[in-house]
DNA sequence: TTGTAGGCGTTATCAA
DNA sequence: TTGATAACGCCTACAA
């Protein structure tokens, strides 16, 4: 009744191969001391029984799960979908795996984190939302490292990997000024999120440094999503007599795309002729023909690699507390939504 | 020296709470026989030590991992990104979790599957590619159920959940005929994949039933991706004097979008005025303003639910072999890329 | 309701 | 190199 399931264990293989159980274990451990002869015999027996080492038991025995938890927010933002795929691919290639969590609407990040901790994963990657400092210290007690991806917090104990958001946004501000932008509109994302805040700040302060009066910079909330941005643009342009912006900075690409669709579809505006537009992230969608968005590309592959590095170093204790935060440089993608600037004011529009 | 890691176990909690270890276990098991008094004491102690039950150990003890492996292909196709998120959300809500695998370029599906089997997961969901029958029988021996999502195989032993691909494609064929389509172009996906094949077949046979000569139906390869479709359309229309199609059926939405972008951006064609277009999947992107694609929506939530149902029933042995394949009905989304049919002949609502 | 004893399948330790 | 034996942390009997 209990023995209904046909579980093949290392003991079965050992018996068939005429060796001891630990020898079976060694046969499956790269670089273990075992004669080729025995290893072959074991592997043959294993194959015959279609035996597969039980990763769960292994995890329990050596206190290493080879699992990394990745907590991801909205996968409708291609940046996160791409990032998740990058994590999966990279970990899979190194024999580890991703336990995926999501924080869809309302679900608490702490909740997901707690569950992840329960699996004694090797590390946790958080791509969104806020963590209670309670959980953070719990994870530290448990020796499970956490790294924020594309996020940061004031708490220096929390490692993070992110892009130079301020600098990137500043670059875009310069480009738009050069192209003749005078009245600006910012579409921000989650006001609580560090990423949106940093980009908005970077953009604003560069504008100020370039002599644009703060009164010429308006800000609306795009809720980090396509639909949010679309709607925000809709209601902003619907019956507003206010100064008409000639340059829009959406804090991420998905919102920039939503904005572009609204501007064109609802108001028949041309980009960049009537209004210029910039985004941030450099997702694939943004580079497509209908958009060719001017944006900053976040080097996802690099960021993922650095995130995993950081996790490992934190786990092995190589890392103390300095250098906890890695900041990578984004690359300006000169699309067609911001005309090439000719330093001189007045613009030119030369982009054959 | 080994004890450097501060692992809190149920024994520690038991000691602090003045109870036995199994009592701690019971305190964390909903519906176990334990007095409220003791449970409270245990939970208090647990909190004080920030103890978290070890899911790995639990899995080993009761031979149930509460983990479902999801093997996903290309996450650049929003259909799969959405599906993955749906799986994660739903499993997370029921206290289970997703171990995510990917089969990026060239990586073998069997490989991922093997690794999944090693974790003795409760079930495996496969959203793409082919499985060797070897692996399938291995998983059956191991008692780990596999369900194909949006795929099928000839092998009846393999359960699958999918949409009525033929019927959906047929509906689109009718709609396009009704709208005046005479020369057809099909953009297919992976010719090896059942999904693309079924849709192509459904489309073709309905056309034939409607009296369209096979010679009027052309087929090109869009490689299941935006870029593949874009390029295919590009080279098809570049210098082709062949009959100009007036109706295009892309086997999935992401390819339809690529096609639309190419038609408009490269050739200045209007949709549906110059050429009509239909897709399949009903992803969010396809419904957006620039596209408003006529397509068939696959009910992802329902499909996910049925997939998990199937997994559970297979695991508990409730399922023999009949009814292994669940087919759900897709919903026609009447977008703007196929003009409303002027009824006329063959305009019946239901499918005979 | 509670505690004791044994098992889940592996890796780690230490002799041989 | 190999084998016996003890963890790993929990759950499921079974007995009290």
From TrEMBL, chains A, B:
<keyword id="KW-0805">Transcription regulation</keyword>
<dbReference type="InterPro" id="IPR000843">
    <property type="entry name" value="HTH_LacI"/>
</dbReference>
<dbReference type="Pfam" id="PF13377">
    <property type="entry name" value="Peripla_BP_3"/>
</dbReference>
<feature type="domain" description="HTH lacI-type">
    <location>
        <begin position="8"/>
        <end position="62"/>
    </location>
</feature>
<dbReference type="Pfam" id="PF00356">
    <property type="entry name" value="LacI"/>
</dbReference>
<keyword id="KW-0804">Transcription</keyword>
<dbReference type="GO" id="GO:0003700">
    <property type="term" value="F:DNA-binding transcription factor activity"/>
</dbReference>
<dbReference type="GO" id="GO:0000976">
    <property type="term" value="F:transcription cis-regulatory region binding"/>
</dbReference>
<protein>
    <submittedName>
        <fullName>LacI family DNA-binding transcriptional regulator</fullName>
    </submittedName>
</protein>
<dbReference type="InterPro" id="IPR010982">
    <property type="entry name" value="Lambda_DNA-bd_dom_sf"/>
</dbReference>
<dbReference type="InterPro" id="IPR046335">
    <property type="entry name" value="LacI/GalR-like_sensor"/>
</dbReference>
<keyword id="KW-0678">Repressor</keyword>
<keyword id="KW-0238">DNA-binding</keyword>
<dbReference type="InterPro" id="IPR028082">
    <property type="entry name" value="Peripla_BP_I"/>
</dbReference>
């Amino acid at each position: 009744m209990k023995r209904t399931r046909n579980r093949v264990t290392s003991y079965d293989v050992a018996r068939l191969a005429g060796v001891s159980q630990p020898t079976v274990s060694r046969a499956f451990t790269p670089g273990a001391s075992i004669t080729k002869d025995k290893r072959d015999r074991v592997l043959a027996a294993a194959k015959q029984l279609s035996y597969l080492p039980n990763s769960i038991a292994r995890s329990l025995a050596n206190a290493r799960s080879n699992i990394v938890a990745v907590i991801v927010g909205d996968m409708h933002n291609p940046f996160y979908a791409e990032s998740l795929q990058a994590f999966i691919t990279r970990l899979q290639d190194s024999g580890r795996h991703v336990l995926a969590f999501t924080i869809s609407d309302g679900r608490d990040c702490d909740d997901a984190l707690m569950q992840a901790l329960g699996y004694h994963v090797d590390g946790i990657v958080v791509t969104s939302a806020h963590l209670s400092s309670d959980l953070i210290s719990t994870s530290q007690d448990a020796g499970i490292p956490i790294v924020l991806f594309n996020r940061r917090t004031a708490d220096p104990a929390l490692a993070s990997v992110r892009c130079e958001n301020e600098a990137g946004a500043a670059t875009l501000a310069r480009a738009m000024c050069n192209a003749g932008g005078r009245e600006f509109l910012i579409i921000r994302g989650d006001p609580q999120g560090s990423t949106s805040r940093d980009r908005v700040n970077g953009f604003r302060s560069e504008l100020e440094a370039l002599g644009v009066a703060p009164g010429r910079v308006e800000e609306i909330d795009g809720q980090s999503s396509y639909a949010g941005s679309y709607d925000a643009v809709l209601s902003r342009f619907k019956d507003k007599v206010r100064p008409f912006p000639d340059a829009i900075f959406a804090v991420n690409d998905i919102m920039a795309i939503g904005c572009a669709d609204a501007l064109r579809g609802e108001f028949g505006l041309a980009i960049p002729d009537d209004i210029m537009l910039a985004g941030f992230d450099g997702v694939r969608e943004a580079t497509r023909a209908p958009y060719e968005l001017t944006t900053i590309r976040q080097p996802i592959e690099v960021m993922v690699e650095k995130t995993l590095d950081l996790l490992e170093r934190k786990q092995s204790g190589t890392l103390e507390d300095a250098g906890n935060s890695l900041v990578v440089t984004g690359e300006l993608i000169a699309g067609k939504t911001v005309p090439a600037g000719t330093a001189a004011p007045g613009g030119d529009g030369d982009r054959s």
